[in-house]
Specification:
Distance between the termini: 36 Å
Shape: globular
CATH topology of the largest domain: Elongation Factor Tu (Ef-tu), domain 3
Structural class: alpha+beta
Strand content: 35-45%
Order of helices and strands: EEEEEHEEEHEEEHEH
Number of domains: 2
CATH class of the largest domain: Mainly Beta
Number of helices: 4
């Protein structure tokens, strides 16, 4: 579990195909990433711990000074974007029960891929418009929360297949979202509370109908 408050911007330094058949095997299957942790302290991280990389919950497989490796399956690669190449990435260690919940509850399980359709400066802030998959839009609400590339953001508005968010200067300076441009793809995770509410309501409707 995470909060969507990015701890550091890291770098994917190496992408290596995996030969393990369980992970897809070969260049068209699973891959192993070596990630440089940037300013994120790894002293309390152990092999087997979870770290969010651009909003994707992954498991640490090896640790060295300032770097860690993770293995991604073919399924993870299919439903996410940007983890199969050398790039800057947003990093966050898993939430501890004693931590402050500065953003919102984030699982690190990407629900879909959005596309940036507009970027507009508004003083020192930056307004970004994202086109989201139709299947996710019903979970995205004005003033609600959404996770974009691992960053917890407040939704400004929702309309006609798109939603808008505002990046304050601090968010721009400590995440990779400042590098987005028209046409950029982003990993989206909806607020898990919306998903549970829908499940509860669907169950009640089914029960009432029966």
């Amino acid at each position: 579990m995470f909060t969507g408050i990015v701890e550091a911007v890291g770098e994917i330094k190496q992408v290596m195909p995996l030969n393990d058949a369980k992970l897809g095997g070969g260049a068209a299957g699973g891959i192993r990433l070596t990630v440089e942790s940037g300013r994120m302290d790894l002293s309390d991280v152990k092999i087997g711990d979870s770290i969010a990389v651009n909003g994707v919950c992954v498991t640490v497989t090896t640790l060295t000074k300032g770097r860690f490796t993770v293995d991604l399956s073919r399924e993870t690669l299919r439903c996410t974007y940007g983890l199969d190449r050398l790039a800057s990435v947003n990093l966050e260690k898993a939430l501890r029960l004693s931590d402050r919940l500065g953003g919102h509850l984030v699982s690190g399980h990407v629900d879909g891929i959005g596309v940036v359709t507009k970027i507009e400066r508004a003083g020192e802030s930056c307004l970004i418009v994202i086109r989201a998959p139709e299947s996710l839009l019903k979970y995205i609400a004005k003033k609600g929360s959404v996770t974009m590339n691992g960053v917890s953001l407040t939704v400004n508005w929702v309309s006609a297949g798109e939603f808008g968010v505002n990046l304050i200067p601090h968010t721009q300076s400590v995440t990779t979202l400042c590098d987005l441009e028209d046409g950029s793809k982003v990993n989206l995770e909806i607020d898990m509370l919306a998903r549970y509410v829908e499940q509860i309501m669907s169950s009640r409707l089914t029960t009432d109908a029966g």
